[in-house]
Design brief:
CATH topology of the largest domain in chain A: Tetracycline Repressor, domain 2
Distance between the termini of chain A: 51 Å
Structural class of chain A: mainly alpha
Largest sheet of chain A: none
Radius of gyration of chain A: 19 Å
Shape of chain A: globular
Number of helices of chain A: 11
Strand content of chain A: under 5%
CATH architecture of the largest domain in chain A: Orthogonal Bundle
Number of strands of chain A: 0
Oligomer: homodimer
CATH class of the largest domain in chain A: Mainly Alpha
Chain lengths: ~210, ~210
Amino acid sequence: MNKKQDSAQQRILKSAVKEFAKHGFWGARSSRIAKGAGINKAMIFYYFSSKENLYRVIIEDTMKAVLEDVRKFIMKTDSPDKLFEALPEVYIRFFSKNQLLAKIMIHDLVQNPDHISAIIAKMFKQASFKPQIIFKEMVRDWYEKGIISESDPVHVILNIMPPSLFCFIGLPMVEAVLDRKIDINDKFIEDRIKSVVNLIKRGMLK
Amino acid sequence: MNKKQDSAQQRILKSAVKEFAKHGFWGARSSRIAKGAGINKAMIFYYFSSKENLYRVIIEDTMKAVLEDVRKFIMKTDSPDKLFEALPEVYIRFFSKNQLLAKIMIHDLVQNPDHISAIIAKMFKQASFKPQIIFKEMVRDWYEKGIISESDPVHVILNIMPPSLFCFIGLPMVEAVLDRKIDINDKFIEDRIKSVVNLIKRGMLK
DNA sequence: GATAGATTTAACCAAAAGGTTAAACCAATC
DNA sequence: GATTGGTTTAACCTTTTGGTTAAATCTATC
């Protein structure tokens, strides 16, 4: 730990991310967060006023970071080819670097679906670009031109996001099914990106 | 509630499934489970001895049911065509009927990856058929014959499972992104199956 | 209708949880 | 070196939790 480099606040945040990822909101213990951060438990409440608020800060920071990455990528893409390459890549790279955040997000999504969707909706309202409209129009346009084979934007997203986002969470099941250990190294990440891009391009582009 | 038809044990199980799905293991409250089942809290411990054991029973029953469904389907399939149609269908149908169980499984997978993989491993050891070997050999064989384009069984599974399994959990995010309500009715289920089957067959078959 | 065994209950308990508090500490400013 | 304001601590408090217990009730068998 970089107890001297990081401020108490940052150390609390780092420790909390680990704790929430491992145990979810309800399983997380503020005493363990304190211990992990090497500070007194009272400091959590001094800086973040409550466990719930600390959690909220983490979720919102995470979502902002993901959406910012996605935004950067999506703005650069004008053709389905590029989009179907860029989206899996940005998701997989982000969540392979931030596997703890992926876990926290999944937790939140399962336990409190309205929470995360409210955050997304709020961010989109504030943002200058409107992914809802951009994405919907893109898909309709491409389908009408006969470029892609899937007409419903809902299924387009559901075909792209889960194979990218959930691969880290689902891996233990795959390991069990195939009776083989898989470690998430650089090669695995590159392979996963290639496989998903290939799947999506061949599966949805005409 | 069918308080007269179901036994106390069954009512506890039903109520517990709801509670665990909504709040996860740590967020679940035995008092709420009791209330939901319309029985005294002590009965939970009378029949299931602990909250943890109640949880274990539910997880194991669920896994058994899923694997039995999958087994039935996989035994009937000898060609990649059939497998790539059957797998998404069995997953999507099972978890659309048992969305609460899907949530519990995801919870468990995130919070305690070793737990669920140990259950799977144990079941496979007891089972007469060996999906690990069958699946691995199938994929290798098909790849060598040039039937499929993905050689790694890990990625084959990661391309099939998540778009099927996680679609119900991920839906709130899709709703937020597209700014549209989506209800999971029969038509949605059929569309989802079609879309995934299409994606996988076109994406991985040569 | 007495006995026995399973089922159900209200009342209780110890431990652990999130959160508070008041005092101490520390660094900068005057 | 006294004052100020942010930071840190140990000790404490309240509520809630999973879990227990001993007595009561029901059910069936003889």
